[in-house]
Each structure stands twice: as structure tokens, then as C-alpha cells.
């Protein structure tokens, strides 16, 4: 098939340029609105051949792997239109549900960079490769450094390669904490059984805080810890936290502002407590999550902290067993921050409740809009929405919204 000459008319929600060809919509990664390009391929997703007429908003990518690496999609776009597009992802998702609401300008929460990274490792003929998958491919791209990471993670790829010499094919997650690097590995069970006795030495050799493999702690030099407000939390092996420290702080600030003077709050899908522990500095908190290690870590932090209002944390599957209206009758406000799939079951119970304020935090504009529609259908008014960009140069966007009745 010969190359197609296309005019890029807009940007799709996955960060790919959108064009019309032969009565159908096609997507071309690496392009910008207004550009004239040549593209090749079959189907609706094409490959960029050359930009014939570049946009004035095109800038030079700062990473030498950009274009091949599947991590970033939008380093080639000038900051202002890029951030405006991020906000439009939220606006468009709401419009698709018939909800009209002005979205506050997108907040850049990249900060010092990503504080966690997932690295793929492959060992072939004794040669270890570590990095990210190439764009739209199952080919592993060998990487030494990633410029969007927090500088404390500069050695993460070398750490992954070192572990790969023993464990072969594996996935290595590295998280930057106050006390050092926390490394969690997923490896083949038979390889782990064979190499188990050889792994503890990596903690000192690689200067790690902790090494875990398949959920088992192999060795700990110093417990990985994080500061959340006035509290210190011991991070569980492989525990989830927001991608950037600036992102967590920004989301928490917006949540606290949205809560106003609420004195009794439930934090749903609370994780290790990035919101709950900060809220507890001024209000009574009930926190719930189905992640048992996260709740154990949060309860330990509660016991060790002073200056907090009364606070409880309990394990609960909020997808199967959401809080019901009778359990929420003493609450002034509810915060929920679910996984990407959203909180449909919980939103339906909130819609039946008398809780005055609901603060929704989401990492997916589509599921957020669905949950917003449910709340509005139950009598809530959407009072404010803010987009937050902690996944810089990607198509992912965070949302914080306040609902009131």
C-alpha cells in the first residue's frame, strides 16, 4: 500500500493525531493538529512516515529513545496546547455523558519525576536486556536512563540488569522512598527456587532498601518509608503509591480544599492513606480498601502517629460490598479514589445517601464521567472539576471533582 498524505485534524484521546481518509477516521502517532503528513499501514492506526508541514507547536523531544519507546507519546508537543488537550479529555468525557461543566486548567504535577518504574528484563544467550517495550510492539528496548524519572531512580535499569543475570526473564518494579530504593520482582517460580539463596546479597551490593521477589521479602537493609502529612508509613512490598510525589501532594491539596470544614469523612479505596492521613489532621476518618497489606501499613502508621483525629482503617471489597446509605448517615463527606475501572457500585450507593459532599478522584476520565452521571442522577450537583497531569507526556490524566447536595 502506498503512503497516504493526510491532514491531521485533531488529537485522539490516546495521544494520536486524527485524520480523515476515504470516509473513515485514522490515527497517526507522533503527529499534531494542523500538520500535513505522510503515513503508511492498514487499518485505522497508521505509522508516521514523514511530517511534510509541521505545526508551530512541534518541539524537539528531549529523550533519545522517543519514537521507539512505548512510554511517552507526546514529548513533541509544546507545553500550553498539550496541557489544554489534557484538560479537554475530561471535558469531552463529561460531554459524552451529557454533563456540562467547566474544567479548571490542568495542573502540571510532574515535579521531580516519576518515583516508581516498572522495567522488563529478558535474558538471551547470556545477554541481559532491561527497559520498556517499543511502541505498538512486543520488542524490548534496552534503556540505560529515562529522563522522566526522579533522579533517585537513575540506577534502576542497572539494578534490573543485575537481577536479570540470576533470575533471567523477569519484571522489576523500583520505587524511590525516603529510606532508599524498594525493589519488587516478578520471576518464574522455578528460577526463584533455584536462585533463592543467591539473592539476599543483592541488597547490599546494589544498595537497596529492600528486595522482594514474587511477594516474598528476600532481604531488608532498612524498611522503605514514606512521609504522608504528619505520619510516616512503611511501604508494603510492591505497594501502590501515586506516580509522583508532586502528584500525590497536588491531589491531596485539592481533596482537602473540596472537603472544606467536613468533620466526619470516609476515604474509600484509601490505599496506604495519602488522603486519609492528611484528612485526619483535621477530621475524623474511616478508611477502607481491599488491599490487606496497605491497610496493615496504614493501621501501623495510625498507631505510631500523634496529632491525628480519631481514625480507623479496615479491609473491605468496595466493588462487592460498597458502603450503604445507613453506614454513611453520620458522615459529612466521602472521598473515593478507585482503580481505573471506577467506583460504579459505590457511586450508586452514594446516590441513595444523604452525604452532603462527595469528592471523586480518578485516573480515568471515562469511568469518572460514568460515576459522575450516577451521582448527578441521585441529586448531586457537580461543583468543580480539576485535571491533574502527573503522567507527563502520556495520554493519562487524573481528575478531582466535588459533588454537593
UniProtKB/TrEMBL annotation:
Specify one Pfam family.
Answer: TRAM
Q: Name one GO biological process term.
A: rRNA base methylation
Give the positions the UniProt entry annotates as the active site: 363
InterPro entries cross-referenced by the UniProt entry = MeTrfase_TrmA_AS, NA-bd_OB-fold, SAM-dependent_MTases_sf, TRAM_dom, U5_MeTrfase_fam
Q: Where does S-adenosyl-L-methionine bind?
A: 242, 269, 289, 337
Q: Name one GO molecular function term.
A: 4 iron, 4 sulfur cluster binding
**Superkingdom as given in the UniProt entry:** Bacteria
This protein's record includes keyword Acetylation:
no
Q: Where is the TRAM domain?
A: 1-55
Indicate the family of this protein.
Answer: Belongs to the class I-like SAM-binding methyltransferase superfamily. RNA M5U methyltransferase family.
Its protein name is RNA methyltransferase
Amino acid at each position: 500500500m502506498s503512503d497516504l498524505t493526510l491532514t491531521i485534524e485533531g488529537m485522539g484521546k490516546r495521544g494520536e493525531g486524527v485524520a480523515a481518509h476515504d470516509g473513515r477516521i485514522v490515527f497517526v502517532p507522533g503527529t499534531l493538529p494542523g500538520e500535513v503528513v505522510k503515513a503508511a499501514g492498514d487499518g485505522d492506526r497508521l505509522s508516521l512516515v514523514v511530517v511534510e508541514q509541521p505545526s508551530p507547536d512541534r518541539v524537539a523531544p528531549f529523550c533519545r529513545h522517543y519514537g521507539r519507546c512505548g512510554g511517552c507519546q507526546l514529548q513533541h508537543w509544546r507545553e500550553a496546547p498539550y496541557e489544554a488537550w489534557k484538560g479537554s479529555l475530561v471535558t469531552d468525557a463529561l460531554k459524552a455523558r451529557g454533563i456540562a461543566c467547566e474544567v479548571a486548567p490542568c495542573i502540571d504535577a510532574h515535579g521531580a519525576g516519576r518515583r516508581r518504574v516498572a522495567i522488563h528484563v529478558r535474558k538471551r544467550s547470556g545477554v541481559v536486556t532491561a527497559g520498556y517495550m517499543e511502541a505498538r510492539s512486543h520488542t524490548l528496548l534496552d534503556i540505560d536512563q529515562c529522563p522522566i524519572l526522579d533522579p533517585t531512580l537513575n540506577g534502576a535499569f542497572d539494578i534490573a540488569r543485575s537481577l536479570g543475570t540470576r533470575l533471567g526473564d523477569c519484571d522489576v518494579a523500583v520505587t524511590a522512598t525516603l529510606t532508599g530504593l524498594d525493589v519488587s520482582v516478578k520471576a518464574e517460580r522455578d528460577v526463584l527456587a533455584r536462585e533463592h539463596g543467591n539473592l539476599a546479597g543483592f541488597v547490599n551490593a546494589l544498595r537497596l532498601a529492600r528486595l522482594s521477589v514474587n511477594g516474598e521479602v528476600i532481604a531488608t537493609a532498612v524498611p522503605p518509608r514514606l512521609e504522608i502529612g504528619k505520619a510516616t508509613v512503611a511501604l508494603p512490598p510492591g505497594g501502590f503509591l501515586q506516580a509522583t510525589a508532586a502528584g500525590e501532594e497536588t491531589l491531596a491539596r485539592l481533596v482537602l480544599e473540596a472537603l472544606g470544614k467536613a468533620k466526619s469523612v470516609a476515604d474509600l479505596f484509601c490505599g496506604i492513606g495519602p488522603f486519609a492521613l492528611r484528612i485526619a489532621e483535621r477530621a475524623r476518618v474511616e478508611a477502607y480498601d481491599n488491599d490487606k497489606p496497605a491497610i496493615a501499613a496504614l493501621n501501623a502508621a495510625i498507631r505510631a502517629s500523634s496529632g491525628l483525629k480519631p481514625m480507623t482503617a479496615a479491609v473491605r471489597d468496595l466493588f462487592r460490598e460498597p458502603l450503604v446509605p445507613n453506614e454513611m448517615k453520620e458522615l459529612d463527606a466521602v472521598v473515593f479514589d478507585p482503580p481505573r475501572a471506577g467506583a460504579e457500585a459505590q457511586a450508586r450507593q452514594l446516590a441513595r445517601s444523604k452525604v452532603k459532599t462527595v469528592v471523586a478522584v480518578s485516573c480515568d476520565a471515562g469511568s469518572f464521567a460514568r460515576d459522575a452521571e450516577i451521582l448527578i442522577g441521585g441529586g448531586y450537583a457537580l461543583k468543580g472539576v480539576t485535571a491533574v497531569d502527573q503522567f507527563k507526556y502520556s495520554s493519562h490524566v487524573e481528575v478531582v471533582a466535588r459533588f454537593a447536595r
